[in-house]
Amino acid sequence: MKTYFKEIGLLILGMFLMSIAWAKTPQYHYVLIKTGKGECLLKLYNETPKHRDNFVKLVKEGYYDSLMFHRVIHNFMVQGGDPDSRYAAQKQPLGEGGPDYKIPAEIQEGVIHKKGTIGAARDDNPAKQSSASQFYLVQGRVFTPEGLDSLEQFRLKGKKLTAQQRTVYTTIGGTPHLDGNYTVFGELLKGIETIDKIAVAKTDERDRPLEDVRMSMKLLTRREALNLEREMEGLPPKTDFFTKVLDIFYSRYY
């Protein structure tokens, strides 16, 4: 009898360990961005792993908390991530701060600057390496086909946009002239209207909002990310007792 219960116990333990080993991992990393103008939910692309992993690291460290959107241009983008903005005085020039390393460019064909995407800011280095912390959220605008023709001729110096670019920029909108020059590494799933609210802020001669717009960020946990992906599939979140017990044995993040 003791042997029987021992075998049953080992079987249960084995099944439990297998459930841990085969634990589902979210498809993407997600970041909640909170501002005084509203919240945004950001999905980071797997196609740009260096930018994704660096951004995740900084968010987990609380790097972005209390920083400003220090550069705002209506119908273009809103930029933040300069650590010097945390305690910046009024009229203080911003935009030069950040960690002492750069991220190698991960510019992907077909990953374009549609409205709601996040891109990495950079200086004029020839390798197009990105700032380690500064980013921009694209507002842009919707173009007419004729407007894109003009853009190709004058700003892009004859370079033709793809069919995908034309479809996106005449429907969703964005900033097509940035394509191929800056790394896009994610997009907003919710809260695009927050960009619109920030983008209409009154600014000074350096495009810094006259009224500070600050941010904080939170990386979704493994369970929060899994439940978000279930929600997007039309499934209910998993919040039952067994799930909560199993989650104790998993890493909080992934």
Give a description of the structure.
By secondary structure, the chain is α+β, with helices and mostly antiparallel strands. It has a single domain, classed as Cyclophilin-like (Cyclophilin, Beta Barrel), CATH 2.40.100.10. It is 30% helix and 19% strand. It has 7 helices and 10 strands. The chain has helices spanning 2-21, 49-61, 145-155, 163-169, 192-199, 222-232, 241-247, and strands spanning 29-35, 38-44, 69-73, 77-80, 102-103, 117-120, 130-131, 135-138, 184-190, 215-219. The strands form 2 sheets. Strands 3-4-8-6-9-2-1-10 form an 8-stranded antiparallel sheet. The mean pLDDT is 93. It comes from Sphingobacterium phlebotomi. Residues 38-216 form the PPIase cyclophilin-type domain. This is peptidylprolyl isomerase. Its EC number is 5.2.1.8.
Task: Provide a short characterization of the protein structure.
A hairpin with a 2-residue loop joins strand 1 (29-35) and strand 2 (38-44). An eight-stranded antiparallel beta sheet has the order 3-4-8-6-9-2-1-10. The chain has a two-stranded antiparallel sheet with strand order 5-7. With 254 residues, the chain is α+β, with helices and mostly antiparallel strands.
